[in-house]
Design brief:
Distance between the termini: 17 Å
Strand content: over 45%
Structural class: mainly beta
Shape: elongated
Helix content: under 10%
Number of helices: 1
Number of strands: 7
Radius of gyration: 20 Å
Length: 115
């Protein structure tokens, strides 16, 4: 899985008077897009969400990515906020290969946190 954490920018600021030291102040926080990948299935809910965005209906959603152990118990959860699909990519169809059909959805978001 890709990295979900944010990147905090710092702003350098020179105060008047003694200018030998540059002060650093916190700046804007930037959250990377989340890329979800899964094997082709009967569920088309994520595709329909992307399709509605492409048709001009803004539909931001909150969600979670959950890491499970081998017994299916939740180990870690990451929550994301105000996300919307920016890119959907269907499987590559190659009759000569035996690769698993993979779909990909990229989500822009306005925040992530480890719960």
């Amino acid at each position: 899985m890709q990295r979900l954490w944010r990147q905090q920018r710092s702003i350098e600021y020179r105060e008047g008077g003694e200018n030998r030291t540059v002060r650093k102040l916190p700046g804007m926080t930037k959250y990377p897009n989340i890329v979800l990948k899964w094997g082709l299935s009967d569920s088309d809910e994520l595709y329909k969400w992307w399709k509605s965005i492409m048709n001009g209906k803004v539909d931001r959603r909150n969600g979670s990515i959950i890491l499970l152990d081998t017994e299916g118990n939740e180990k870690v959860r990451w929550n994301f906020f105000n996300a919307w699909p920016t890119k959907w990519d269907g499987p590559d169809f190659n009759a000569k290969g035996n690769d698993v059909a993979i779909e990909t959805l990229e989500l822009a978001n306005e925040g992530t946190e480890r719960a």
